[in-house]
């Protein structure tokens, strides 16, 4: 599994957890009907109202978390972020209520401040819920050498690396999903892929995991690769294959 695939799976798990949080809070608020929505709205409109409000609340939560990454890690920053969250969300709910419910009780500054205090409590609930439902923080996934190298290819051609073949000023990069020409020197590719495979010939590099078998052809060693290609091995590179365990010592 590539680093890209692993990162994608972590992201999907996080969004699935956030979706469950949104559904749970929406159902709870719809049934409770706070802020007078129980009397003002029927069940379906109330569910739509709270679904939108809570989606905005969760989105705002993540937006402020993102902004906090660029701020000093200090309690004052965390307090300011919490206050900003409450003020923005409180003002949005206040404005929506005034717009949706003509004559809504609470269309004054005192009620706005009271609403912001309530939202602070809601913010704490959302924060706890997100931390509880999100999967444990995974360490940052660092792409390995082959992942970074294969990222040069079109998306459809990316996959486990099999071999490289020098062709004039280009390299033919062969993966399990096809091949593509890349403008690059073999020496640079070999340096970038150090540890993932070996250069076995002046014009050939192979991924060790993609070697199917070793053959002897006309007295010389050749490697049969996963894609069916037969790659010649120069005599000077035989010791490297022995050291890697591909050939018997």
User: Distance between the terminal alpha carbons, to the nearest Å?
Assistant: 32 Å
Q: Which strand-content bin applies to the residues?
A: 15-25%
Averaging pLDDT over every residue, what do you get? Answer: 77
Strand order of the largest sheet: 3-2-1-5-4
Number of helices: 8
Residues in helix, %? 40-55%
H/E element sequence: HHHHHHEEEHEEEEEH
What is the gyration radius calculated from CA atoms? 30 Å
Shape: rod-shaped
- Strand-pairing-aware structural class: alpha+beta
**Biggest β-sheet strands, sense, barrel:** 5 strands, antiparallel
Q: How many domains would you count in the coordinates?
A: 2
Uncertain runs are 1-11, 134-143
User: How many individual β-strands?
Assistant: 8
Describe this structure as you would to a colleague.
The protein folds into two domains: 3-133, no CATH class; 145-243, OB fold (Dihydrolipoamide Acetyltransferase, E2P). It has eight helices and eight strands; from the N terminus they run ααααααβββαβββββα. The protein has helices at residues 3-32, 37-40, 43-68, 75-100, 109-133, 145-150, 186-192, 238-243, and strands spanning 161-167, 170-175, 178-183, 197-201, 204-207, 211-217, 220-225, 230-232. The strands form two sheets. A five-stranded antiparallel β-sheet has the order 3-2-1-5-4. A three-stranded antiparallel β-sheet has the order 6-7-8, with no helix packed on it. The longest helix has 30 residues, at 3-32. It starts with a helix and ends in a 6-residue tail after the last helix. The model is unreliable at 1-11 and 134-143 (pLDDT under 50).
């Amino acid at each position: 599994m590539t680093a890209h695939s692993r990162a994608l799976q972590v992201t999907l798990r996080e969004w699935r957890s956030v979706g469950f949080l949104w559904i749970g809070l929406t159902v709870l608020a719809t049934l409770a009907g706070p802020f007078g929505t129980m009397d003002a709205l029927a069940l379906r409109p109330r569910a739509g109202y709270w679904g939108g409000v809570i989606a905005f609340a969760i989105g705002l939560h993540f937006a402020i978390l993102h902004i906090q990454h660029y701020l000093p890690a200090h309690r004052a920053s965390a307090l300011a972020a919490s206050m900003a969250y409450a003020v923005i969300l409180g003002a949005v709910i206040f404005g929506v209520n005034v717009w949706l419910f003509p004559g809504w009780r609470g269309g004054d500054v005192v009620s706005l401040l009271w609403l912001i205090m309530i939202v602070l409590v809601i913010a704490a609930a959302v924060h706890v819920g997100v931390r509880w439902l999100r999967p444990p923080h995974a360490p940052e996934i660092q792409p390995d050498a082959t992942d970074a190298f294969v990222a040069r290819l079109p998306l459809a051609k990316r996959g486990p690396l099999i071999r490289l073949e020098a062709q004039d000023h280009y390299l033919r990069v062969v993966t399990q999903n096809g091949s593509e020409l890349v403008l690059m020197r073999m020496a640079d590719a070999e340096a970038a892929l150090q540890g993932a495979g070996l250069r076995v010939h002046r014009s050939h590099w192979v991924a060790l995991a993609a070697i199917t078998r070793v053959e002897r052809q006309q007295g010389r060693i050749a490697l049969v690769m996963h894609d069916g290609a037969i790659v010649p091995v120069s005599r000077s590179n035989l010791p490297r294959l022995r050291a890697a365990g591909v050939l018997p010592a």
